[in-house]
Amino acid sequence: MKNKILVTGGAGYIGSHTCIALHEAGYDIVVYDNLSNSSREAINRVSTLIGQSIEFIKGDTRDAEMLKQIFVAHQFFAVIHFAGLKAVGESVAKPLLYYNNNVSGSITLLEVMAEYNVKNLIFSSSATVYGDPETLPIDENSKRSCTNPYGQSKLAVEHILEDLSVSDQSWNLISLRYFNPVGSHPSGQIGEDPNDIPNNLMPYISQVAVGKLEKLSIFGNDYPTVDGTGVRDFIHVTDLAQGHVSALNYLEQQASSKSSSDTTSSVGFLPINLGTGKGTSVLELVSTFAKVSKQPIPYQFVARRAGDVASCYASADKAKALLGWQAKLSITDMCQDTWHWQSMNPNGYNET
Ligand code: NAD
Ligand code: UFG
């Protein structure tokens, strides 16, 4: 058995897919999630898919006492920290909730990690930290700026991680900046299950295709892009999950290449983009989804959405060079797997 990993937010969309990838790579995992935006059913299904039950603890990252009990009970090599709230609009309406959950939750987790001398962390950051990019593709040295509390909370945690790595060089802190995760596990058993009406494009399209929503509103057709609609770097969630395994392997290599007397780190704070490096427009995604699902996707053009940028896609070179990771799956795969999940689970994890 390989190292043991604590996965915060492991019941959520990206976390549940990553649990499978970690298990397949031989890691022993413990999932910690308060289920504020996920369901126990996701964990049950992951357990069925991997053929063994996952160790799941319901708890909050702001609960230091509960975290301490877990660190006493388990010897972790690293923490993968997905737990966080992620709805941009909600963050504007409830900034204190977002700073408390995402920033205070991360600080509490880091304090407990420090106390138990677990100093390897993989943090879920976002391309949102780049704001409106000055140049494309976006590399990790691009200027960071955010316009909403959700993005600010991700940026704040990145700053905390940077400061921490300066203060104590034994920390190994990888910040994975995800571009636009979409798709589902090919089994169709787990996937993205948004509460209420989806804010994001792919779940909206798939709910139109399955007949739950009437038509898609496309926010703007006058952007300086290939067809006037927004361009994003969509990445299949199973590729993204694999990126976490590669990041973990990297931390292990660094740990094993250090001599036992060397307490300084060679990783420090390391931001890495996880994207495909390719941009796809909203209209291109809609037409691929319609083709794959063989369902009509009615749409209308409406005004631009406040805060949206025209184009956003990654330079994925650093992930390839350092982690040996690159995305493999296509836009067609992303649409096919999303449709598989959506058509098998029209109401998500909720059976009714
Ligand atoms: P998700 O909401 O499906 O998963 C997050 C999980 O964290 C949920 O299961 C939720 O219940 C849990 N959680 C939230 N706050 C918690 C807390 N205080 N304590 C314990 N558990 C808590 O979201 P996701 O799409 O899987 O995203 C995972 C991470 O990746 C998040 O940090 C998100 O901000 C980040 N991210 C997501 C995207 C995206 O488009 N999905 C893009 C960039 C970054
Ligand atoms: N869009 C529509 N109609 C919709 C939803 C989206 O036209 O109903 C368009 C948007 O205008 C944008 C594109 O589809 O051009 C993608 O929008 P999403 O909401 O799916 O994704 P964003 O790029 O706006 O943001 C997402 C997450 C952020 C994250 C960011 C980068 O919501 O939290 O990706 O990772 F920070």
Which helices and strands appear, and what pairs or packs with what?
Blueprint: E1 4-8, H1 13-24, E2 28-33, H2 40-50, E3 55-58, H3 64-73, E4 78-81, H4 88-93, H5 95-115, E5 120-126, H6 149-167, E6 172-178, E7 180-182, H7 201-209, E8 216-219, E9 231-232, E10 234-236, H8 237-257, E11 268-274, E12 280-281, H9 282-293, E13 299-302, E14 311-312, H10 317-323, H11 331-344
Parallel strand pairs: 1-2, 1-4, 2-3, 4-5, 5-6, 6-11, 7-10, 8-13, 9-14
Antiparallel strand pairs: 9-12
Helix pairs in contact: 1-2, 1-8, 3-5, 5-6, 7-9, 7-11, 9-11
Bound molecules: nicotinamide-adenine-dinucleotide and uridine-5'-diphosphate-4-deoxy-4-fluoro-alpha-D-galactose (UFG).
Structural write-up:
The structure is a single chain. By secondary structure, the chain is of the alpha/beta class. It has one domain: 3-Layer(aba) Sandwich (Rossmann fold). Helices cover 40% and strands 17% of the residues. The chain has a seven-stranded parallel sheet with strand order 3-2-1-4-5-6-11, with helices on both faces. A three-stranded mixed sheet has the order 12-9-14. The chain has a two-stranded parallel ribbon with strand order 7-10. α7 (201-209) packs parallel to α9 (282-293) and α7 (201-209) crosses α11. The longest helix is centred in the first third of the chain and has 21 residues, at 95-115. The radius of gyration is 20 Å and the shape is globular. It starts with a strand and ends in an 8-residue tail after the last helix. 46% of the residues are buried. The mean pLDDT is 96. Bound molecules: nicotinamide-adenine-dinucleotide and uridine-5'-diphosphate-4-deoxy-4-fluoro-alpha-D-galactose. Residues 86, 88, 126-128, 178-180, 199-201, 204, 216-219, 230, 232, 282, 305, 308 line the site of uridine-5'-diphosphate-4-deoxy-4-fluoro-alpha-D-galactose.
